[in-house]
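Thread: quick sanity check before group meeting

JM: Hey all, I'm pulling together slides for Thursday and realized we never actually wrote out the predicted structure for the chain we discussed last week. Dropping the sequence here so it's in one place. If anyone has concerns about the input, flag it before I start.
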Amino acid sequence: MFEVLSLSKKPKDIRQMVDLLKQGATLTEYACPACASPLFRFKSGELWCAKCEKRVVVIKEGEDATKVTSQAHLQALENTILTKIQAVEQRIRDEEDVEELQKLNNALASLLENLEKLKKMKTA
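JM (edit): ok, ran it. Output follows.
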């Protein structure tokens, strides 16, 4: 006889793995170097350990570790800036106060400037 387990009875890390799959992440052949849990790849290419709840960077033999981790940090920063741009854009859409709109416009201009600088750094 088969027993159906509810998701709430499974360990936290298993639930997180299921959530990652539901979000569109794919299971990879890699294992986390810290806990040996399977790693997941987001559509952005980022690897993630559900158990450690951390991003994982794979450094292949012969690669410069500093360059690889630097690129990973730049990518994470770019993702953060893009998220903030979306948040400011939403606030601009909902805002009616002219002074607040000016502040939001300044913040958006600054974020866009930083995004442009970041993209130049990534290609250098």
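AS: nice. Residues 65-94 form the longest helix (30 residues). The chain is about 55% helix and 15% strand.
JM: adding both to the slides.
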